[in-house]
Amino acid sequence: MHSILGPKKCLHFFGFHFFLYFLSINFISFLSHKCRFGGGCMRVGEVMHHAVYVPSSVAVAAAVRVMERENIDSVLVRHGSTIGILTEHDVLRKVVARNLDASHVLAADIMSLPLHTIGRDDPVEEASDLMVKHRIRRLVVVENSLIVGVISAACIAQNIRYLAASRLISSESTLGEFAG
User: Fold this and answer.
1) Coil, helix or strand at residue 86
2) Considering only CA atoms, which of 53, 44, 18, 11 is closest in space to residue 126?
3) Domain assignment present for 118
4) Is residue 154 part of a domain?
5) Across the 180 residues of the chain, what is the mean pLDDT of every consecutive 10-residue run?
6) Burial class of residue 74, CB neighbours in 10 A (0-12, 13-18, 19+)
7) Cβ neighbour number for residue 151 with a 10 Å cutoff
């Protein structure tokens, strides 16, 4: 693989992102320990993004333009009564790596199935555990059997500082109640 960063810097760059992902997953476990003891914890609904759909008949190139416009890394694909997910990773592995023309490949042809789901009110730690278990980067978020969003490892990593700070402030105010 050639990169504008060069082969060694490219590897270092991706290694750094893997380190950040690994750190965020472990930090989530640390922050979410209160869930097991009845305290507050980070919920999936706090970090998910809205679900964006494309029809199965849309070309992959058009689906990628939707992802770009919405600033997301995946779209859900409606294929009759089936719903799949199309990710940037799917496009890279199944279209770009095979030198296929993205304007002639349909979203339905490369979407990933089955969907892995998690509840909106479930702890982020559980989402992280499911992602690791299934070796995936995204989960479809459901509430009352309806799809309400998507949570990704990137969503978790982007929101970790904000969520950590809000939990810290919440913990400090709770401790203040006990002291006062």
Assistant:
1) strand
2) 44
3) yes
4) yes
5) 41 48 53 51 88 97 97 94 94 96 97 95 91 94 96 84 66 53
6) buried
7) 27
List the helix and strand counts (H, then E) for the chain. Answer: 7, 6
CA dist., res. 119 & res. 110, Å (int): 26
The answer to the question of residue 1 being in a domain is: no
Residue 24 lies in a domain: yes
Q: What CATH code is carried by the domain that includes residue 21?
A: 3.10.580.10
Q: Total domain count for the chain?
A: 1
Q: What is the 3-state secondary structure (H, E, C) of 140-166?
A: EEEECCEEEEEEEHHHHHHHHHHHHHH
* Bridge partners of residue 55, in order along the sequence: 78
Sheet holding 53-55, edge to edge: 53-55, 74-79, 82-87
Contact 138, 85 (CB under 8 A): yes
**By residue range, what is the domain housing residue 127?**
7-179
CA distance 44 to 117: 11
pLDDT at site 159: 74
